[in-house]
Amino acid sequence: MKASIYKKVLLITFASLLVLTLLSFAVMYYQVNKAWGEFVPTVNSEQFRSEQGAYAILNASVLSQDGERMLANQTIIVRNGIIEALDEGLSVPEHVEVIDASGKFIIPGLIDAHVHLWQSPNDLLLYLANGVTHVRELNGSEEHLSWREDIAAGRPGPDLFVATRRHNTSTGFSALFDRWAAKINPVASTDNMSQHVASIQSAGYDAIKVYTLLDNDHFVALQDAAREANIQILGHIPFDLPLDQVWASDLKDLGHVEELVKALDREFGGYTRDDTEEFLQFVRDRSEAVAAELNNNDIAVVTTLALIESFSAQKLSVEDALSHVHAEYVNTGIAESLGDSFKVMGWLPESNIYRLPEDYPEDLIPGNQRYWNAYAEANQILLQAMVQQNVLILAGTDANVPIMVPGYSLHEELESLVAIGFTPAQALRSATTTTAQQMNIESGVIREGYQADLLILNANPLNNISHTKTIVEVISNGRRYTGEDIENMREAVRVANQG
After folding, report:
1. What whole-number distance in Å separates Cα of residue 486 and Cα of residue 472?
2. How far apart are CA 428 and CA 111, in angstroms?
3. Does some domain include residue 262?
4. CA distances from 386 to 85, 131, 136, 247, 251 (A)
5. Among 57, 133, 150, 385, fewest CB within 10 Å belongs to which?
6. Range of 13's domain?
7. Does residue 59 fall inside a structural domain?
8. Is residue 82 part of a domain?
9. What span, in angstroms and rounded, lies between the C-alpha atoms of 354 and 312?
10. What is the spatial distance between Cα 471 and Cα 482, in angstroms, rounded to a whole number?
């Protein structure tokens, strides 16, 4: 009898523990996916669907193919998503819709070279509404690959370039956490790397992303397997990789200028709040040589400057930093995150990943600001050297990392580039022609035979880069989205964020 009772108690205890474990897992699953944006209501994008047709845009000022000037009185004929003809005074074919663009300016659709969609499909509408017709997703998933196919079939959204999740070296529980919660591909061995890359290619990814904590052996193995499979690697400079190895590697597309700043900081020995001027002088002294190496080795660099410039403000006052961006369009799950327990990419004061702790000593704040201001200036110094030496510069924002609002952030990025000395034409090229060339796509230039990705603007961005925001109409792969569509997209996303 006692044995029977004992067995019943054990069974009940085991069942109870199993139920509690399953419930705990379900709660954790919900919370983690909520923090990546999963549960905000999805806007029905079908209401904005636009078909490719045939139309002629007349009397427009069109950005020249070198991006340096506007060509007056141009006619653009678009058919089935392609620019069929472009010239002054073209005759308009019969049965073609006519759009009078008198007094308007047309530039290529913009490209954000570094974004994170996470689990937030409403962002696709934000990109379109802000004239961003292509994005490079640099921490991709199978869901993003599905979105890419949907967009190719007509779903409203920018064309997607999808790189894999980040690759970091990790093992054990850390690897489990990375894979499940942090959206990282853990690498524990050099074994089976070719099979891993083959699975990436089979899934349809456009590139493989390497990350900060990928050790040298794993980096080399991944690089070699990618080279054999003819798939690009891009992303961060691993801590184990000095710059001379970077120049010789297959890492030809750096996700941030700050990757170079971090590498120079390691060369310097690690700067502090007390030797910022010495570090900045070191960066100045090295900047021309770094830019030359980038040029000599055909390495492209993504800017993400506006994000870097926001660090000191976010550390000092998250509330003030948020007041300067369109935070109402950010997925609320991503913005709220999970508080201090698991910040993920939190934006709000209680979850912001950059803010100083509440108990941070007040007397240390000036030094902290000095450190992060110097960090931003180091990025600016390198970008200035790079643009002078015609390095391949790709405008990118790290969108959805606080406080980079999808779509809006690219306009802020262009303003940051012009503020440090880029001409408006150079800034525009970094968000159109250069990135399109790096992606090997026929876009980014208004040219016969190229995909019809166009922005019709009210004002000339060559005179003021902020005029990229004066959007009258967005044309993405030949699909037209009017000013009314644009406002309705924005409003739909804002309302969805309110739940």
Report:
1. 9
2. 10
3. yes
4. 35, 26, 21, 15, 17
5. 150
6. 2-35
7. no
8. no
9. 9
10. 9
Residue 130 inside a domain? The answer is yes
The count of domains in the chain is 2
Averaged pLDDT in 10-residue chunks for the chain of 499 residues: 67 66 60 85 98 97 99 98 96 94 99 98 99 99 99 99 98 82 90 97 99 98 98 98 98 99 98 98 99 99 99 96 97 83 77 94 97 99 99 99 99 99 99 99 99 99 99 99 98 94
How much is the pTM? Answer: 0.95
Angle at 438 between CA 310 and CA 224, to 5 degrees: 100
Matching residue, tokens 């976010």: 314
Q: What are phi and psi of 26, to 5 degrees?
A: -60, -40
